[in-house]
């Protein structure tokens, strides 16, 4: 059975699989060619360079995120977009350092940014406040995922083993050496099905509440 012809989309999809397996450091024209079972030189008919390949990967990430609508309330749209971005970036953590670093953003990236700003503007955000909101939301989502993917235990894995290790390495009872940390562990973690990922909604609500208050103040002040 013959392989489907090469296309830019197939090349970028293959690059995403290489990145999933080996990280961005493993992405090269040669490694993507191996993934597609073709010579690396044949890829240049579809992507001009390694930089163009990375630009395409960044756009690939944005294409998988929820795009806010301008005719719906901003809070629900930003909530959905934040959850979508978290899910995509958790599945493809190599995207964290990539998506905001490209000098040649593609149509999915530009369209996504425009849609976020358009949703906020349609809901009454001034241009400066929309920019602040976009920055704060991305900082929260990206920072949360960065922490989540680097935790010393996996999602669904009980944290008790890690807590026991802390007790051993503190060379004494944890509550004597680090009483506030021990208190938090006792209340939040020990004997409970604690998942760090459950913190996401709480923090996101705080961010959205703060933006809602800022919007109300801006409108009252004639901003």
From TrEMBL:
Alphabetic keyword roster: DNA-binding, Repressor, Transcription, Transcription regulation
Q: Which residues form the HTH tetR-type domain?
A: 5-65
What are the GO BP annotations of this UniProt entry? negative regulation of DNA-templated transcription; response to antibiotic
Kindly give the PROSITE patterns that the UniProt entry links to this protein.
HTH_TETR_2
Which InterPro entries does the record associate with it? Answer: Homeodomain-like_sf, HTH-type_TetR-like_transc_reg, HTH_TetR, Repressor_TetR_C, Tet_transcr_reg_TetR, Tet_transcr_reg_TetR-rel_C_sf
Pfam families the record matches: TetR_C_1, TetR_N
Q: Name one GO molecular function term.
A: transcription cis-regulatory region binding
Q: Which residues bind DNA?
A: 28-47
Record bears the keyword DNA-binding: yes
Name the UniProt record assigns to this protein: TetR/AcrR family transcriptional regulator
Organism, scientific name: Nocardioides glacieisoli
